[in-house]
Description:
Two copies of one chain form a homodimer. By secondary structure, chain A is an alpha/beta fold. Chain A is 25% helix and 25% strand. Chain A contains nine helices and 14 strands. In chain A, strands 3, 4, 5, 6, 13 and 14 form a six-stranded mixed beta sheet that branches. In chain A, helix 2 crosses helix 3 (154-163) and helix 2 crosses helix 8 (277-292). The radius of gyration of chain A is 20 Å and the shape is globular. Chains A and B meet through helix 7 and strand 12 of A and helix 7 and strand 12 of B. Chains A, B: It comes from Streptomyces atratus.
Amino acid sequence: MWEVRLAKHLKADLGTDTFDLVQVPTPEPAAGEVLVRTDYLGLSVAYLEMLRADSRLPIPPWEVGQRIGGGAVGTVVRSNSAELAVGDLVRTMAGWCEYSTGPADQYPGLDPDLFPSPVHYLSQGPTAYYGMSEVAKAGAGDVVFVSGAAGGVGSLAGQIATCRGAAKVIGSAGSQAKIDYLVDELGFDAAFDYHDGPVLDHLRELAPEGITVFFDNVGGEQFDAAVEAAAPGARFALCGALATQIGDHEDRFPEPDLTAAAAKGIAVLPFSTYHTPEQVAAWTEHFSTWLSEDRFVFPHTIVEGGLSAAPQALVSLLKGSFKGNVSVRVAS
Amino acid sequence: MWEVRLAKHLKADLGTDTFDLVQVPTPEPAAGEVLVRTDYLGLSVAYLEMLRADSRLPIPPWEVGQRIGGGAVGTVVRSNSAELAVGDLVRTMAGWCEYSTGPADQYPGLDPDLFPSPVHYLSQGPTAYYGMSEVAKAGAGDVVFVSGAAGGVGSLAGQIATCRGAAKVIGSAGSQAKIDYLVDELGFDAAFDYHDGPVLDHLRELAPEGITVFFDNVGGEQFDAAVEAAAPGARFALCGALATQIGDHEDRFPEPDLTAAAAKGIAVLPFSTYHTPEQVAAWTEHFSTWLSEDRFVFPHTIVEGGLSAAPQALVSLLKGSFKGNVSVRVAS
């Protein structure tokens, strides 16, 4: 089978030469183990930090020669365990490989009928849901601003705020096509292109009553403008997943000037999360409910081409080429 | 009478040449007005910001030629109002002058028997109390770290945490004398000199269980170390009053790197306050109660020498020459 390994640590811009595609023996399941075929890989801009030797995440970055990690969904194709049967849909953390093997309890079973597609299990919803509900505590009457709103987390975060009763949800993104998408397809109340004049002007026009919740994926000017446009006591959830994004800002995580925030008593709530089982369960329940009620859209791209398409897909994701969540179809 | 005016805006270090001592006519109270003698001026490092032309506070800085403002307590010496009688103790916001006049309702009456001295009304307690109780919400079982703990706000903030049931209160200050004072006189559980090796080493030794509340008057290295030494979900109240302090750090307000804070889900809560009537009332009630129960010490210096001693007193305060709160006796 094929797997993808880290060829060298990332220094400046990400290119496909950061990865090695290597052929290795397809593993054999031992007693109590299963062989799982990787069906879809989920991608996230947070991967960028894991590719750096100087990652600032509190977990070790990936080593050169090591397989690229991350979440995936797969299908059991051989089973030496009574716990899983051939054909079962499972979650796998085996990373960028075509097949993996291990004890059955390493592969939590997934309900194939809960969602329209297995890729729904690979969304960045647990981050968006945790951030909007537990960190920002967005609810009835809130005026919510989401920066980086067309991304994997932001596109879900804005809809979550609406479903939780926000009075108004405003998004920013980097192109007119994304702006139209946010308003026309995802139901944002308003959106603007952050290249199009001062961010503060947009916010003052769109939220003259003051922002009460800011879900920040970007930092920099958008953070500063949100402080200026905030109501006293606003809650700012700073999302660590997308703050690592390559973009118009220099910092990999906001280092905000808090002077103006102090005057308004703004709560600055930086967070990052690795999708605890509780967070995944809370998101899965709400996501499936909201989808069934036609209150939610899952913005999603499936990249075709098998495992070898994964490196270029991640590069494209980090260039902002996609809207919403992105996964790679490994097996068809 | 004499009053003190701003001579020039502050650029680098504060000196007494920032001030002009000028003689002006003692004002005459009109009908409905009172004449109030200034007894004590309260001083605070927050004044530093008001002296700068480029103040980052959300209120206009003082203008050159304008009288220096700030809180004081005084005594009514003439009254053309039925609301106040000669001899009444009042609060005044007239600033650095020997006498002021205005409508009686500009001078809230104070209970002369509530505290041992009128200077108790000039403490920075409303900031400390609001920050520790309403922003950090310190309470039973919390492990609390206060930076700049020997200052006007910090010396009260640590004791407030203890009175609210904190399990442990740790302070940092800039000299061994201040450390001894914090532990021996103010009842801090532990204290350390921030010049004495890495701050993080002190915190790991003194709070191996992890800090749950940080009341930060300083920023810089102390903020970074507190993040490292914090328990998940800790609350960090960043006090804008003392963050303007001249000290070992370059920034006038912390511009923290929030990456590590994100990993622990630390709530960063910058605040500044101008002592609303509600905040003053809440503090006054608790302060008088705790003092009467012998649970609280009021760390305080009264600078003698009249109004003309005020400029040098403020310069000395900003050099860290005092412990606790500082007031100037204007009339004796």
